[in-house]
Design goal:
The complex is a heterodimer of chains A (439) and B (360). With 439 residues, chain A is of the alpha/beta class. Chain A has helices at residues 28-44, 106-109, 128-137, 150-158, 209-233, 236-253, 265-270, 275-289, 307-331, 397-407; strands spanning 61-67, 91-93, 100-102, 115-121, 168-172, 177-179, 192-196, 293-298, 338-343, 347-348, 360-361, 365-371, 379-380, 416-419, 422-425. In chain A, the strands form four sheets. Chain A has a nine-stranded mixed beta sheet with strand order 6-7-5-8-1-9-12-4-13, sandwiched between helices. Chain B is globular, with a radius of gyration of 20 Å. Classes of the chains: A alpha/beta (439), B mainly beta (360).
């Protein structure tokens, strides 16, 4: 991996023309029409039919780390030490020559030849209530439907919904349960199984012996009744109910994967011993076992006050846990097949407020991406010297969605959802993939 | 002149280009040194406000200390660099420098009462003691398990205390560099899911060295630095914590500095979303006997040599900016940061207004 060189260090990128919102002028329908014309012309000439676009994505699974509340780009991926808004921390060199990140991330600094950063995110929402869900949906155009969150979308588009394990698992602090709302119009089948505090729901042990036979008979009867009911009166709620049973059965067959008490102490220590560390260690185990999409949420990043003490603590936890995850995936030969994504709903203001805090800043912020389907050791985009605005090209979350899909071998320009006969684009058609980031 | 806490009043505010963190009066109390985010060391004449400055540091200047006669000045930045300055030099130039007093994130420093020792601490579990005369390292004190937030010398000059994120206070024997005992101010520390909030953010001894005061706050959430400020007195002879000192009225933010006024009362400074506050506690009283608010957050302060003035650095913006989400540009469509203030409070009586001219 280390030897793979990139030419886009420090943000000289080359995407087709973008408007002021950072979105491309062409749309999905235009591209589809042009591709159809091109392929017709190709066949007519008697030549082999050309692939319409490069779709050699290699990632098969995703670990998505969601830092809820918004981590500061200036205390993580895009430090500006010694400048007006740079804060008290320094930058440190990384394993990629010429690339520095915050001193709060010394372990990731040693992994940067395996990871990439987009430093020129520019998104549309500056408050949590409006931003959290649209960002996780890829901010699609409003068509009056509820789009799925990324995990549900990936499971649907990769066709992994009927796997032996719940394909979409969300490890989060607090309560767990079945989060069918994540799936939006895709339906509860694509919802997330949430492990609250990393724990499986109670009573997961499968009854044995003669009692098991009774349970099986009950399930068969329930399935028959459900089948009859569903033919006439299936609703999202009842579908979610049925899906919950199926998920519970899947989990029961792999109970050991959902028991955080079985994590090895030395592994927990390598991941930092923090809550995030334990959850990312669980994520690694779930990915190893074949789960398609694991989302890990860490709360409390909304540092309007005491930003630097909070980031000293929080970023240090992220650093150790993320670096251990990358390392483990590499050692196990899974990194090339696993896309690792770490992001928030926006960044934090350059301006340091009167409570030594930073506020919400969608104008320019950073996210990290590495592993399967994407380049390593690169930096996409660049902010100005003060870190206040993007210096050149900027990218919306729609671009990231396109890029993630492409990294997974899904072409957002060709594939679309079928919402009961209504065709819907899988990613914002005003955006495109950040091709420089793709492997 | 006897100084009563209740007699304090706002004198004036001195505007600086950038947010300030620390300040010290000069030897005769006519000029104020101040520094903060921009790494410059400012010297300002209080009578006419004339301001000069030199580039001094690369990181934030977190701490400023003055020798007992105020002829030497020490500044320390968040990147770990310490400079010693002769306060009367013009222009100011460092007399000597410690390039790396702290491996990462220097937070605080203290000077022994005789001015011979300088201690530093930061985002590592290590306290370092240097000669304040030449910057030579004397002790590297290890024993904390968390970042060390504050340090203070005992008035007897033989002991140094250091307080960490978890509210653990180490009592160090300066002669042999050993930890003599461990004290506790753990109620200044809270855990919210993954965030560790609080820490011993300021410490000071009473003039006789009988009580150690540890200041901070009791956090009520994970990431906003909200919660009531609190000072924990510790009986130095027994090591036991005594009943806490609190503000007389509700306040929602951390205490950022703590020092004894020469007249014998304790002063604390703090910051919150609503602005800053100075609290005044008399010995033996748990509630502050007086407090005075300011429009923006207050950080570190100093008394002038006469004890008649207090200067405190303000972290907010004198133009009324309060922060906020998103792109907030000024009338020229520029994105500008906060400026800073050095705010002067005084115990001197107000100058009477000129009598109205007599009608002829």
């Amino acid at each position: 991996m280390r030897g793979r060189s990139l030419t886009f260090i420090e943000g000289e990128v080359n995407i087709p023309s973008t408007n002021c919102a950072g979105r491309n002028d062409w749309n999905r329908r235009d591209v589809l029409q042009s591709l159809v014309k091109a392929s017709v012309a190709t066949v007519a000439c008697g030549l082999p039919r050309a692939l319409p676009a490069e779709t050699k994505g290699r990632a098969k699974r995703v670990v998505c780390i969601w830092l809820d509340g918004a981590m500061s780009q200036l205390e993580s991926w895009d430090p500006k030490p010694g400048t007006e808004f740079g804060g008290p921390f320094q930058a440190i060199p990384t394993s990629v020559p010429g690339l520095s990140i915050s001193e709060l991330m010394p372990r990731m600094a040693q992994q940067m030849h395996r990871f990439s950063i987009i430093r020129s995110m520019h998104t549309q929402y500056e408050d949590h209530s409006r931003g959290v869900i649209p960002i996780q949906q890829g901010d699609p155009k409003n068509r009056g439907v509820t789009y799925p969150l990324l995990g549900s979308a990936v499971v649907k588009l990769l066709g992994k919904e009927d796997s032996d394990l719940p394909p979409y698992i969300h490890i989060k602090p607090g309560s767990g349960g079945f989060m069918f709302q994540d799936a939006g119009f895709l339906g509860p089948k694509y919802g997330a199984l949430a492990l609250g505090d990393g724990k499986a729901p109670p009573n997961l042990v499968v009854p044995q012996d003669e009692f098991k036979a009774r349970v099986d008979r009950r399930r068969q009867m329930r399935d028959r009744l459900n089948s009859r009911f569903d033919q006439q009166r299936l609703t999202d709620s009842s579908a979610a109910y049925n899906q919950t049973y199926r998920v519970a059965e899947q989990m029961a067959r792999h109970a050991e994967l959902f028991d955080p008490s079985r994590l090895r102490p030395d592994d927990v220590a390598r991941y930092g011993g923090s809550q995030l560390g334990r959850h990312l260690l669980q994520a690694r185990q779930l990915i190893e076992a074949g789960v398609t999409f694991v989302k890990v949420t860490m709360f409390h990043w909304d540092t309007h006050g005491d930003n630097f003490n909070c980031h000293l603590d929080g970023v240090s936890q992220v650093d150790q846990a993320l670096a251990a995850l990358v390392d483990d995936l590499v050692v196990r030969g899974l990194y090339e097949e696993t896309l690792v994504l770490i992001l928030s709903e926006f960044g934090r203001t350059p301006k340091i407020n009167a409570r030594v805090g930073r506020d919400h800043w969608p104008e320019c912020w950073s996210l990290g991406m590495g592993g399967g389907g994407v380049q390593s050791g690169g930096v996409i985009g660049k902010t100005n010297d003060l870190g206040t605005f993007n210096a050149h090209e900027e990218y919306d979350i729609g671009h990231v969605y396109h890029t993630v899909f492409r990294a997974l071998g899904i072409d957002p320009l060709l594939e679309e959802y079928d919402n009961g006969g209504q065709p819907l684009p899988i990613a914002n058609e005003k955006c495109g993939a950040i091709t420089q980031l793709l492997a | 002149m006897e100084v009563q806490p209740q007699a304090v009043r706002l004198e004036k505010s001195l505007i600086h280009p950038r947010q300030l963190l620390c300040c010290r009066f000069d030897a005769d109390g006519t000029r104020l040194f101040a520094a903060g985010h921009d790494g410059r060391l400012y010297r300002q004449t209080l009578a006419d406000g004339q301001l000069t400055g030199v580039d001094a540091h690369r990181g934030w200047v977190e701490v400023m200390l003055a020798s007992p006669n105020r002829l030497l000045l020490y500044t320390a930045d968040s990147w770990g660099q310490v400079h010693a300055w002769r306060a009367t030099d013009d222009p100011l130039e460092p007399a000597w420098t410690i390039e790396k007093a702290c491996a990462t994130g220097l937070r605080s420093a203290a000077l022994s009462r005789d001015g011979k020792l300088l201690a530093t601490c930061g985002n590592e579990p290590v306290v370092r003691v240097f000669s304040a005369g030449n910057g030579k390292l004397i002790h590297e004190l290890r024993g904390h398990e968390q970042p060390v937030f504050s340090v203070a010398f005992h008035p007897d000059g033989e002991r140094l205390v250091s307080g960490d994120l978890h509210g653990v206070v180490r009592d160090w024997d300066i002669i042999n560099g050993q930890c003599a005992r461990t004290l506790e101010a753990r109620s200044l520390f809270k855990v919210f899911e993954h965030y560790r909030q609080g820490g011993v953010r300021a410490m000071t001894f009473d003039p006789e060295g009988k009580l150690l005061y540890c200041g901070g706050f009791q956090g009520t959430n994970a990431n906003q630095a909200q919660g009531a400020p609190m000072v924990i007195p510790i009986d130095w002879s027994t090591g036991k914590a005594l009943p806490e000192l609190t503000p007389a009225t509700a306040f929602n933010g951390p205490l950022s500095d703590l020092a004894f006024h020469p007249a014998g009362f304790l002063v604390g400074a703090g910051s919150s979303e609503a602005g800053g506050m100075l609290w005044f506690w008399k010995p033996g009283e748990g509630k502050a006997v007086h407090s005075i608010s300011y429009k923006t957050s207050l950080r570190r302060f100093d008394f002038d040599p006469s004890g008649q003035r207090l200067a405190v650095t303000a972290f907010g913006d004198s133009n009324g900016q309060r922060g906020g989400n998103g792109r907030r540009l000024n009338e020229r469509q520029q994105y500008v940061g906060f400026n800073g203030e050095a705010v002067l409070f005084t115990w001197q009586p107000a100058v009477p207004m000129n009598p109205s001219p007599q009608k002829s």
